[in-house]
Amino acid sequence: MPLQEREHASVVTHALAQHVLTDLRSVETSQVEFRKGLVKLGRLCGYELIDSRFPTETGTVETPLAETPATRVSGLDDVVIVNVLRAATPFVEGLLKAFPTARQGVISASRNEDAGMGEDGEFPISVQYVKLPEITEDDTVIVADPMLATGSTMVTVLDEILADGAPESCFVLSAVSAPPGLQRVREAFPEVEHVTVSVDDELDDDGFIVPGLGDAGDRAFRTT
Ligand SMILES: O=P(O)(O)OC[C@H]1O[C@H](OP(=O)(O)OP(=O)(O)O)[C@H](O)[C@@H]1O
Ligand SMILES: O=c1cc[nH]c(=O)[nH]1
Ligand SMILES: [Mg+2]
Fold first, then answer.
1. 103 appears as a binding residue in the annotation
2. What is the CB < 6 Å shell around ligand 1?
3. Number of domains composing the chain
4. CA 151 / ligand 2 centre spacing (Å)
5. Ligand 2 site, residue 149, Cβ cutoff 6 A
6. ipTM surpasses cut 0.90
7. Average pLDDT for consecutive 10-residue bins of the chain (224 residues)?
8. Residue 66 lies in a domain
9. Residues that bind 5-phospho-alpha-D-ribose 1-diphosphate, according to the entry (predicted)?
10. Own/partner long-range contacts of 206-209 (Cβ < 8 Å, ≥24 apart)
């Protein structure tokens, strides 16, 4: 199913992805089910990304009985997945089912929620750990973070990832995103495509997405 184009984002409309997102949103969903839901959603989003953004090539394959026309996806061996700690960890686990040979990077970036959202609608972001594979011009980079709220985290993360040169393509993949974050990331990185399962209505005064699904890190890791 093709991704649906929205302002600053492409939306995964696959019915099962929307179903899993509904479970993630529910306040009744337990920690274990929440984490499993993020894994499922990562896998489904990976499949959708392959279906709509990766080229295929045709050739032939030799079965035990005959040669027959065959289709293969190109570029699967040139994928880099970046895990934005910590909420992306289960999401990446699912994504790796679609891209098992991906090279992986990890960036620990978190919002300083005690400082609060500034007048400019941004959070101070603390980056504590960055470990990235070499990224080449043949690569497709997928930066996974289930939540894009103000976009402060993602702009900081993309600054780190794209500092040393441009990959062939770069996607940000989220479960839920909010218009202010989408706009901020698009302005800073117009070359990056944002793929998301939902564009929600707005942010509240604390910088949380409404309706959203709450604090994804806390729900997945059972912290408060
Ligand atoms: O768009 P932003 O306003 O920057 O918000 C989004 C970020 O907030 C959450 O992380 P958080 O800082 O809560 O860290 P955590 O994953 O460790 O919970 C989420 O996982 C994103 O990384
Ligand atoms: O709504 C939000 C915003 C940022 N981070 C989350 O986990 N949830
Ligand atoms: Mg959090």
1. no
2. 84, 86-87, 110-111, 123, 145, 147-154, 181, 207, 216-217
3. 1
4. 11
5. yes
6. yes
7. 93 98 98 98 98 98 98 98 97 98 97 92 96 97 98 98 94 98 98 98 97 98 92
8. no
9. 86, 111, 145-153, 215
10. 206/113, 206/116, 206/117, 207/111, 207/113, 207/116, 207/117, 207/123, 207/149, 207/150, 208/149, 209/147, 209/149, 209/176, 209/177, 209/178
